[in-house]
Amino acid sequence: MPNSSDIDLSILQNLASETKRQWLYLHETDSTNAEIGRRLQDHPPEEGLVVIADAQTGGRGRLGRVWHSEPENGIYLSTLIRPDLSPEKLPLITLMAGLATVLAVNSTIPSPARLKWPNDLLLNGKKIAGVLCENHSTKTPAVIIGIGINVNHSQFPPEIKDIATSLKLETGLKINRTSLIKNLVTQLDLQYNELKNNEVKILLENWCKNTDLFGNTITIKKGNRKIAGKALRLDKLGRLVLAGHSGKELALDSGEVSLE
Ligand code: BTN
């Protein structure tokens, strides 16, 4: 079968970077996160491994969901980092990756995508990208950051068509995936450096500039619980602070947000 991929590995391999990146391009895999996970068990790779695939047969989403991974139309990318962060700061990695993704996407399309805590990207109210971070620390810390972006899809299966969209569907533009991957890994480096340099305040401020959440009444689903309140801000650990109906503030470290 001819490979009609617009992912040009030679361009990506020649990208300047402070981090020593190692690229692995796969025509198809089950999941780019799983690919790195397997390598961690065999010959643990160094920080900077980036795996990209043109198609995933078992793309994983948050909360045990499936990530729709249509061949050659999406970006399916995972990277390995070995952060030297205290455990309570680990959730910041997911916000950092969401911020990098929204900045990369917004440098590619005319109308801005917005973040929904903790790390969904929405365009015109529908999801265009998501981040799945998996902590694999054994002796040395290892976090796999997996990013999925709906780029050139023309349609979605009936079960997700009302909640998912693509950059092409929303803008009418066919996006070159190599350029978007370039922007994405560049942004990941920049935002990860902010985190390593302990510039958490700047990182969180930038995250907040790219969301419409605050001031809105939202519901957060956490397991079987549903918590409603007004979204106020992020605290210094990236938790979402809500004002409950009694006015009492509550900081949440995970959950699924829906706008009321
Ligand atoms: C979400 O549910 O919003 C997170 C989706 C993350 C999908 C990406 S695609 C690349 C990487 N490999 C996976 O199996 N999942 C992540």
Spell out the key features of this protein.
binds biotin; SH3 type barrels; BirA Bifunctional Protein, domain 2; 12 strands; 2 domains; five-stranded antiparallel sheet; 260 residues; seven-stranded mixed sheet; alpha+beta; globular; 6 helices
Mean pLDDT: 94
The helix content, as a percent range, equals 25-40%
- Identify the CATH class of the largest domain: Alpha Beta
Q: CATH superfamily membership of the largest domain, which one?
A: Bira Bifunctional Protein, Domain 2
Residue fraction in strands: 25-35%
Characterize the largest beta sheet: strand count, sense, and whether it forms a barrel: 7 strands, mixed
Q: Under CATH, the topology of the largest domain is which?
A: BirA Bifunctional Protein, domain 2
Question: What does this protein structure show overall?
Answer:
- This protein has 260 residues and is of the alpha+beta class.
- It has two domains: 201 residues, BirA Bifunctional Protein, domain 2, CATH 3.30.930.10; 43 residues, SH3 type barrels (Roll), CATH 2.30.30.100.
- The strands form two sheets. It has a seven-stranded mixed beta sheet, with helices on both faces. A five-stranded antiparallel beta sheet has the order 11-10-9-8-12, with no helix packed on it.
- The site of biotin has 20 residues, from helix 2, strand 3, strand 6 and strand 7.
- Biotin binds next to helix 2, strand 3, strand 6 and strand 7.
Give a brief description:
26% of the residues lie in helices and 27% in strands. The protein has helices at residues 9-13, 32-42, 91-106, 167-171, 177-196, 200-209; strands at residues 22-26, 49-53, 74-81, 114-116, 120-123, 126-135, 143-150, 217-222, 225-234, 240-243, 249-252, 256-259. The strands form two sheets. The chain has a seven-stranded mixed sheet with strand order 1-2-3-7-6-5-4, sandwiched between helices. A five-stranded antiparallel sheet has the order 11-10-9-8-12, with no helix packed on it.
